Amino acid sequence: MRSKELGFKRAWSTTGVVALTGALLLTSAPTASADYIRDKQWVIDVINFEKVWKESQGQGVTVAVVDTGVDGTHPDLVGQVLKGKDVTGGGGDPQDDTDGHGTGMASLIAGHGHGVNNSSGVVGLAPKAKILPIKAAVRDDYDDDQWAEGVRYAVDRGAKVINLSFADSLAHPDSEGAAAIEYALQRDVVVVSGTGNDGSEGLEYPAKLPGVVAVGAVDESLKVWGNSNYGPGVTLTAPGVNIARADTSHSSGYAEGSGVSDATAYVSATAALVRAKYPDLTAGQVINRLIKSATFLDRDVKKVPDEEYGYGLIRPYSALTMDIPKGPKQGPLAQSSPSTSTNSGAAPDDNDSTSQAKKKKKSSSGSTLLIAGIAAAVLVIGGILFAVLRSRRNGGNGGPGSGGGTPPHGTGYPPQPPTGYQQYPNTPPNQGYPAPPGQSPQHPNPYAQQPPHQGQ
């Protein structure tokens, strides 16, 4: 089952979502369904949440979830959800989530479970972070004028990370959505969005916009999920397949599914962990830590960033503990104003007619100068050639070209990275780490490995 589409806008709601209830245990397990939910969360063991939490739990950081709302009465989220805002125009309650998607994303970020020692239900990667709910859609139809208002509201209310687990193809560089994201980037906010669930080449907006952390999904074997969109601009990958999460649209309160939505939530949670431990870092420097600590495992990656894995698979513990220089304040991703960078991360046909007209006008005015320049150059070169020939006829030496010339511009240098990226060093594709004892080589666990030495 694919994501439901309404026009050109859709949520990266997980595909194949099913309710998780005690009935799924068949006759073999008398335990409560919520305990079963905890057991279904394979990401907890792979990332080793307990080890990560010794370094940070996201305390003091607000993560805005721009989605279908977040139900703060869910037992796994009680006390975690702030007031928020409904920007759909209905004037409703941002905690009224009849779709369940936003609640699910919030649970992966800041769920704390419930019951004895919080051992039941969904637990998020940053359980002490606060969730600011922004209800931008009732189901999965997003309007960039509305969610843009939500992004600005989140920034003004102190959100340090914004999770956008949806796509809006109209959020091109000249849109209200793009302007709102630029507003967030200029105010030191980490913005995270999913690449898309179509399994095709090309990122969706808003993940495609400059400065946004574009996230793809990996499965339980930590390989890129077949439906995860790929191409230039992918920043990171994270678990996004067979993910158990809170879901208020089911009577059990839980569901399981697959999609880049879930992967996006885990990256947002990781950003919250880093911001909690390193409050002096800028948003760009936080992203730098996420990128520098990521891994490709033993994938045969030829060029970084890779079009499937980006800079690699997130490693929250390494992001918190590696000795990584702060780097430039702006970080590794472009944060240019949409009005001046309409081509950043976009295909040539993504610009509207107004942008194309401006480009043509600029080209026309430039061509006149170019013709004049060529004419002048011809006269100069002609004069030089005449002098050289005359000198050679007269037996002269030392004319132009007699010595060692300057090599062509760019010779010997690697090609530049895709638009919107600076070349940042990364861990080699094959780090050579052995699998932990008892672990199958087909299911590598990068989170249980020791971080590489700085500079690798």
From TrEMBL:
Residues 396-407 have a biased composition (Gly residues). Its main location: membrane. Residues 83-104, 324-366, 396-456 are annotated as: Disordered. It is a single-pass membrane protein. The keyword Membrane applies. One of its GO terms (molecular function) is serine-type endopeptidase activity. Residues 333-345, 447-456 have a biased composition (Polar residues). The active site is at 67 (charge relay system), 101 (charge relay system), 261 (charge relay system). Belongs to the peptidase S8 family. NCBIfam families: T7SS_mycosin (TIGR03921). This is Type VII secretion-associated serine protease mycosin.
